[in-house]
Amino acid sequence: MKKKNATLFIVSAALIVFIAYTLLAGITLGSYHVKSMGEVIKLGLDLKGGIYIEEEIVDKNVTSDTIERTKELLKLRVDSLGVSEANVTLTGSNRIRIEIPGIYDAQAALDQVGKTGKLKFVGPDEKEILTGSDVEDATVGVDPNTNQPVVQLKLKTEGATKFAEATANNIGKVISIYMDEEVVSAPTVQSAIPDGNAIITGSGTIE
């Protein structure tokens, strides 16, 4: 009886150690991977530590669409910090809260998310064609022929003139679109666009 109890104790202890190790580190058995608790559970600031930043929109006439775009831009910037568990949310009607777990250099994070965004269109010769000041509006749409999401771009008068020349000279070539220094889209020019109304395909998803 004592031998049986001792065996049961050893097996139970080994099982507890195995489960504890798996929870902490995960384990791979052939092609099957059991995730650790750290991989499964996203820790917030209260558990993992980090910083949060709140930005206030001071313009009283800003639209909800612009606020949503601003939130997405901030998320893009936070992602560039290499943080996968950051949370960007709207609090109230005019404040955006950015939570960044695992980051402790508040100034570096603030420098990254607080800088003025720069949108630019760059030709295959690396020369700047357009900036955000040339864009009147950009909205999401769906191509009726393919059912795929597209970006519907509307340019201001001066921007339309510059874009007409650039697209006419670069048919079959790529014009890259940057937000800050990150390429967010690199469409190939299919035809000259003389009126400042362009459709950019290849986004993949509406998000």
Observed structural traits:
elongated, 12 strands, single chain, alpha+beta, 207 residues, 4-stranded antiparallel sheet, 3-stranded antiparallel sheet
Fold and architecture overview:
With 207 residues, the protein is α+β, with helices and mostly antiparallel strands. The protein has helices spanning 2-25, 37-40, 45-48, 64-79, 106-114, 157-169, and strands spanning 27-29, 32-34, 50-56, 87-91, 95-101, 119-122, 128-131, 135-142, 149-155, 176-179, 182-185, 197-200. 34% of the residues lie in helices and 29% in strands. It has a four-stranded antiparallel sheet with strand order 7-6-10-11. The radius of gyration is 25 Å and the shape is elongated.
Computed Rg: 25 Å
Order of helices and strands: HEEHHEHEEHEEEEHEEE
The tally of beta strands, per DSSP, is 12
Average pLDDT for all residues = 77
Query: Approximately how much helix is present in the residues?
Result: 25-40%
- How far is it from the N-terminal to the C-terminal residue, by CA? 64 Å
Discrete helix count:
6
Architecture blueprint of SSEs:
Elements: H1 2-25, E1 27-29, E2 32-34, H2 37-40, H3 45-48, E3 50-56, H4 64-79, E4 87-91, E5 95-101, H5 106-114, E6 119-122, E7 128-131, E8 135-142, E9 149-155, H6 157-169, E10 176-179, E11 182-185, E12 197-200
Antiparallel strand pairs: 1-2, 3-5, 4-5, 6-7, 6-10, 8-9, 9-12, 10-11
In brief:
The chain is an alpha+beta fold and 207 residues long. The chain has helices at 2-25, 37-40, 45-48, 64-79, 106-114, 157-169; strands at residues 27-29, 32-34, 50-56, 87-91, 95-101, 119-122, 128-131, 135-142, 149-155, 176-179, 182-185, 197-200.
